[in-house]
Amino acid sequence: MFQASKTRLQSRPSLAAHAVGVAFVKRFLFAAALALAPLSIASAASDMPSAAPAAEGLSASKLEAMSTAIKAGQFQKITSVLVARHGKLVFEAYYDDGKPDGGMEARRNTRSVTKTVTAMLAAAAIDRGAIPNVDAPIKPYLKGRPPAAAPDPRKDKVTVEDLMTMSSIAECDDDNQFSRGNEERMYLIEDWVGFYLDLPVRGFPDWVQKPADAPYGRSFSYCTAGVTTLGAVVQGAVGKPLPVFAREALLGPLGIEGERWQVSPLGLAQGGGGLGLRSRDLLKLGQLYLDGGKWNGRQVLPASFVKAATSPHANARPETDYGYLIWLQTFSGHKAWAMSGTGGNKVVIVPDLGIVAVITTANFDVRQPHAITERLLTEHILAAVEP
């Protein structure tokens, strides 16, 4: 069973393109090989069934008004919006159709939405017994590495759950440009896992809330390097490359094909961001959580993990908690789970309404892109629910 530890992850645009240019050929060949990989379950390859909005209690006219507003530029650069209710696709629109790398078949680089996928893969590894539980220390799964800098016995005790809740002891904060663990610094070196392991222990001066005083007993600090390392932990535990395991345990069963992983200079698939998936694929991942880990009648992820993942484990900011690499928010009075990435890219699951919404964007150079996406969600998608 998955449960919280008895003891008690919106990433900015990446500079990876600058840091890993020398590895371009390796990444291209790697992605090409993955695109040719067979599905593990061919019968699961179908997309979600569709229905008219009215049949599932949504106003078609309000959704069309949303589309008109998007086309008029009221939400900047929205590239796609998909809405499912009660397991049926009721709205689907692409606002970059006809453009290079746009439309239905585009693999969306939704940045840190990938983090939730990495949590799912950790769950699959635990479900298979490759990792005993979320309390397992990560060190045994990172074999053959040189000694870490700034050695400290507390670093040896960092667990899978610490990485999934953005609350490890490492001094790592993507929202602080001065942090030694800031994501942009990681892309400047070739060993991204080593970057995380070498970080010093985080300090807690008087003006910073200590874990013992924080809600849920954890101090939240957004850290992409930690999730990158979690991907390596899963890879080490299952004994196969992360993309191979992802296809076997998650993407294949959901009928997701042609995924595109970003890869570090040393060849590690980036679990912390940049996984390229279609908007329909993102919708499937959201529906998987809404349905307690089931897809087409098959239990792909344990229901107990989904429940634990969508329960609060850390307080990220006022009125926003954090689960296992997923944001726990409230929109228009409804509790929601959000897979979130730079630019306001989001997969939002609203359990009490039976809604999954995918919003992809190219709002990487505008102010408050997440607020833009959330306004689209509340003013149009949730407002389309009929009483």
**What is the CATH top level name of the largest domain?**
Alpha Beta
Which CATH architecture of the largest domain? 3-Layer(aba) Sandwich
Cα distance, first to last residue? 37 Å
One letter per element, helices H and strands E, the order comes to: HHHEEEHHHHHHEHEEHEEEEEEH
Mean pLDDT: 90
- Helicity range: 25-40%
Q: Enumerate how many helices there are, as a single number.
A: 12
Q: What characterizes the major β-sheet?
A: 8 strands, antiparallel
Corresponding CATH superfamily of the largest domain: DD-peptidase/beta-lactamase superfamily
Strand order of the largest sheet: 2-1-12-11-10-9-8-7
From the alpha-carbon coordinates, what is the Rg to the nearest angstrom? 20 Å
**CATH topology value of the largest domain:** Beta-lactamase
**What general outline do the C-alpha atoms trace?**
globular
Tally the structural domains.
2
The secondary structure category is: alpha+beta
Report the sheet-strand fraction: 5-15%
Number of strands: 12
Report low-confidence residues grouped into runs of 5 or more. Answer: 5-45
Keywords: Hydrolase
GO molecular function: hydrolase activity
Protein name: Serine hydrolase
Domain Beta-lactamase-related: 80-365
Summed up:
Pfam families: Beta-lactamase. This protein has 387 residues and is an alpha+beta fold.
Architecture overview:
The structure is a single chain. The chain is α+β, with helices and mostly antiparallel strands and 387 residues long. It has helices at residues 16-19, 24-35, 60-71, 113-127, 160-164, 183-186, 192-197, 224-238, 242-251, 279-290, 303-309, 369-381; strands at 78-85, 88-94, 108-109, 276-277, 294-295, 298-299, 314-317, 320-322, 327-331, 334-341, 345-350, 355-361. The protein has two domains: 51-106 and 326-386, no CATH class; 109-278, Beta-lactamase (3-Layer(aba) Sandwich), CATH 3.40.710.10. Residues 80-365 form the Beta-lactamase-related domain. This is Serine hydrolase. GO terms for molecular function: hydrolase activity. Pfam families: Beta-lactamase.
